[in-house]
Amino acid sequence: MLFAGRLPGPSASFYPNPPVVSRAGGGAGLGAGSQALPGSRTHRGGEERRESTGSDDALPSVANCDDVIEGQPFHKRPFPELHQSMRTLWRRFGFSRILFKVESYRISESESLTPLAWTSQIQKLSRAPGIFLLNQRKRFSTMTEIETNQRDSELFSPPSNVRGMTKLDRTAFKKAVTIPVLKVKKEIVSQLMRSLKRAALQRPGMKRVIEDPEDEESRLVMLDPHKIFTDDSFERAELSILKQLNVSPQIHKYNLELTYENFKSEEILKAVLPEGQDVTSGFSRVGHIAHLNLRDHQLPFKHLIGQVMIDKNPGITSAVNKINNIDNTYRNFQMEVLSGEENMMTKVRENGYTYEFDFSKVYWNPRLSTEHSRITELLKPGDMLFDVFAGVGPFAIPVAKKNCTVFANDLNPESHKWLLHNCKLNKVDQKVKVFNLDGKDFLQGPVREELMQQLGPLSKERKHSVHIVMNLPAKAIEFLSVFKLLLDGPPCGTELLPIVHCYSFSKDPNPAKDVQQRAGAMLGISLEACSSIHLVRNVAPNKEMLCITFRIPAAVLYKNQTLTLENQDDPPLKRQKTDVFAEEKTHIASVT
């Protein structure tokens, strides 16, 4: 393999009588045992022998090139011992490149490496060598260094003896490693560290600057061994700062002891759990509580996982695991305390509002924060909201703060209690009417009575909207049938008809269409032309949570109305594609 590049500096080792250079399979490939550095590509000469002919016989071989001298044309550089053995490629642009052979090499490429020929077609032509143009300084490393870098890839992994641990033993995580350090005067440490953020070592619970045991006037700056390998691993801007502060870029070795405090939670769990199994590093935070959903293969390690989550997340004092699905009447679930305190009384802040409750007795999902905010933004001051499954108030309280009238209901006595409490806590108790009823009874009672007043004969003078939120994804669609023939009397204007936001889960390949069809079936009409679908979140593989929004047609809501599409008073609706389901080509309409 031939390379055109700048001449290696004095640190390179040259062989006057190089071995024959060859290329396996017509091109360079990764050799056994070699590994690329992070962010670089690795190339290595092959094993197949090839006869060297013509002027190529005199080309030198490079075994290890650590630097490349810049700034001078090649024919002016002081390397007399190589002048007779190199072939210079002259360019019209006033500079030259020199071809040389490499015995075993690795190129750490940056964006400045531009291949002149990098295709198999060129390499096949007359078995022509691959040629590269190197415009910037490159590092050539021996296979020994590559193997060292491969070992360094697990430098910050916990020791292997913790595999299978089920009871946390923090002392078992001690590990000694060798890292590069930079020796600097203590007076300039602060100024220097602002420019070495990239190169400095960053590990949990670890100082990046330590005292020099051999010199009281100096400090040792710990460097990231994955970024700094040798003196020339610094970037140009970093070298400029070092030169400006009169700091030698010479790298020193330092023996560092890692402890449990220096490892990240995912590193600890990856080292403890059996190889190849999923690692739990995420959780839902509810105040001081970490809420996990562990899988079956993680259960033998559940107490260790809980303790790690507490240790590695400031403010978390309790870790719990859900042990059944939310399928009971009150929407709470049974949980097991994995580690930490048993106290489930917690306080959370969401979108600027404060909520207090007993997490073991009510439903709260921090992953719905964005959805709570989205619905709140849809309402304007003076609008009315009926929250059928209100929980502890994440919809009702923000909407009430916008000077809207709110009717909030929840069947769970605990949720009802904390809903009242949170309304007072956020100073909206005078704007929210709270009920403790079944959803059906709430719709047929307080909701019906209020709608009869709001949508009665004088309703044409009213310009505010009515919204009904039904956030019970497992069953909310079943409650839509309550709206059929719910009201008496003449129908109100179309623009005053209530707007429903109904949530549902779907495992269907086309979840938008599935939700539209199921909701339409409960109302006895098709909603495909008069509803919008919003993807709330992905709950599990092949399970989506969606919100369908629509105005209740007068033909559905009022008695003595003919249930035909022709008789609906709805104005023409602008049709649009559902963004999140565009691939399914589901057309829906905007609610205006």
UniProtKB/TrEMBL annotation:
GO biological process entries: mitochondrial tRNA methylation; tRNA N1-guanine methylation
Record's keyword terms, sorted: Acetylation, Cytoplasm, Methyltransferase, Mitochondrion, Nucleus, S-adenosyl-L-methionine, Transferase, tRNA processing
Binding site residues for S-adenosyl-L-methionine: H372, D410, L411, D438, G439, N471
Segments forming domain SAM-dependent methyltransferase TRM5/TYW2-type: 283-554
Any single Pfam family the record assigns to this protein: TRM5-TYW2_MTfase
PROSITE patterns for this protein: SAM_MT_TRM5_TYW2
Biased composition (Basic and acidic residues): 44-53
Name of the protein in question: tRNA (guanine(37)-N1)-methyltransferase
Gene name, Swiss-Prot/TrEMBL: TRMT5
